[in-house]
Amino acid sequence: MKRSLFVLATISLSFVLPARSQTAVEGRGVWAHPGDFGRSEKEVEAFFQVLKKSHIQVVVPLVKDMAGRIYWHSRRFPEAVHPDYRQFDVLRAITNAAPKYGIKVHAWLCDFGEAKDSPAFKLHPEWAMLSPEGGLTADEKLTPDKVYGPVWMCPARRPGYTDQWLLPMIEEVVRDYPVDGIHHDYVRYPGDAAPDTYCFCDYCLEHFLVDNLFFYPSQPAKQVPLKNIRLRPEANWDQDFTVKPADWTSLSREQKARFILEGKAINRADLDYFFYELRCDAVSRFVREAWERAAAVRPNIEMSAAVFINPMKSGRFIGQRWTDFAPWVDITMTMTYRSHFQGSFEDYLAYLADVVPAQVAWVGNMSSLYVGLDAYYIFQEEREPWEKAVALLKPEADNESRAKLRKLMEGNIAYLTRFSVPRAKALGARFRSFEKGKASPSEMAAEITGFLTDAPPGFFPEDKLIRAIEAVRKSGGRGVMVFSASHISRNKLWGGLEKAFSFPARPAQEVLPEGPHLSIRAWRELRKKPG
């Protein structure tokens, strides 16, 4: 199907834009973890009251985490249910409560993440991604003192994790729970655990040659050299030639990986291009199949996805070229968090003015764009002096370090006085006790770290979140997502969201091509037809 046939996606969670004369409704949502909802029907109801008061339209509750644990009472995968939620079906409670408050529920799955002790990996270790050396993502070192942890499962292998585990999970959620949508997260290859290192499992190595048709399957040993007709070697790309090395079967996994990443098709080290393309194709295929499975159960199911800021960069580094799979996603939720930018908060606001219009243009009329903001990293300036103090709390600290620590804490306590005089006095007393040797550095560090998770109201200024939301509006975003409910609660920001969303939802700016526009539903029906 040609891109020219792509049609307009749902512009909000509740309304469709069938003609240019209508306006979109600003989307407002939050990501939430199981702990945000509590462990009882009463606690779930209380949380929805908070969401409703803050004018939230969609909540995205985590139902599968990066360790492979799930948060619904699965009949097909009972061994994967998180131990803490085997007596309380939190997803059932969520879907029971949500309609009372007019809030939609998109069940959030961390798609390709598992753990070494997860049922999926223990039953099928062959489904995991492998490095050129045959290693797992779980054992990758991100820094000299930090090991990655999660086991990423291969999106491409069939049969494998995607079609034997993940897609059936999605199908079960849609069939057994009245969710409004399915939300994809970690719908990609690992980026922080070496982008060029995965996946080189047996399936991916062989299918690199097969899927690109780099040899003739009927004559696998045949070597066809490039026929040079034109002066520039690469200009002969359309001529009949094979790429598969004659000694392919005798190469080690690492040698095959090196060939893929550094080898030449003709005269340049360009084979890695085909490697990155296949990764993008594997992810996009999964997103399409997820919609097909879910829509077969419930035709009006919605799909959403948390994606990185720039689909051009994320396509190269993590196989997430979300412009490819946007037609199978009703709402593209970009993780436009401050942690992905450098500079001050004012710089971040300026970046939003550039990035959001680019995202709107990238997604075009294929999907609706909700810009994701974070309620944690946005407060870098407020956290930094406290985190610097923690870094200086070491048993072997010299006099210079102790002087720096004292100065930092004096400034921190003075800042805290603006919001809670009693807590400032108490913290000051504890710090003086530490200086007298009555508390260890680890105890003082724990004290400060604990304080940051329960700072007084106003310590993390809600105005920063409000200004970021306003910057998204001015830049053409059709909706705002906030990560996450836990951070909103800890940083005492629900009042700020209530203020930001207090007025009726404004019409979002439209960036639409000329010509007729159809809803994503009509587009999907069109897509079912031949041709």
Quick recap:
The protein is of the alpha/beta class and 531 residues long. The chain is built from 19 helices and 14 strands.
Could you characterize what this model shows?
- This protein is of the alpha/beta class and 531 residues long.
- 42% of the residues lie in helices and 11% in strands.
- The strands form four sheets. Strands 2-3-4-9-10-11-12-13 form an eight-stranded parallel barrel, surrounded by five helices.
- Strand 6 and strand 7 (146-147) form a beta hairpin.
- The termini are close together.
Major beta-sheet overview:
8 strands, parallel, barrel
> What is the helix content?
40-55%
Question: N- to C-terminal separation?
Answer: 7 Å
Whole-number tally of structural domains:
3
Spell out the key features of this protein:
single chain, 531 residues, alpha/beta, TIM Barrel, eight-stranded parallel barrel, two-stranded antiparallel ribbon, 19 helices, 11% strand, globular
Blueprint (SSEs and pairs):
Blueprint: E1 24-25, E2 27-32, H1 34-37, H2 41-53, E3 58-64, H3 90-101, E4 104-110, E5 113-114, H4 119-123, E6 141-143, E7 146-147, E8 151-152, H5 161-176, E9 181-185, H6 202-211, H7 253-262, H8 271-297, E10 302-307, H9 311-318, H10 322-325, E11 331-335, H11 345-363, E12 368-374, H12 380-392, H13 399-417, H14 421-435, H15 441-452, H16 462-474, E13 479-483, H17 485-490, H18 494-500, E14 507-508, H19 520-528
Parallel strand pairs: 2-3, 2-13, 3-4, 4-9, 9-10, 10-11, 11-12, 12-13
Antiparallel strand pairs: 1-14, 5-8, 6-7
Helix pairs in contact: 2-3, 5-8, 7-8, 8-9, 11-16, 12-13, 12-15, 13-14, 16-18
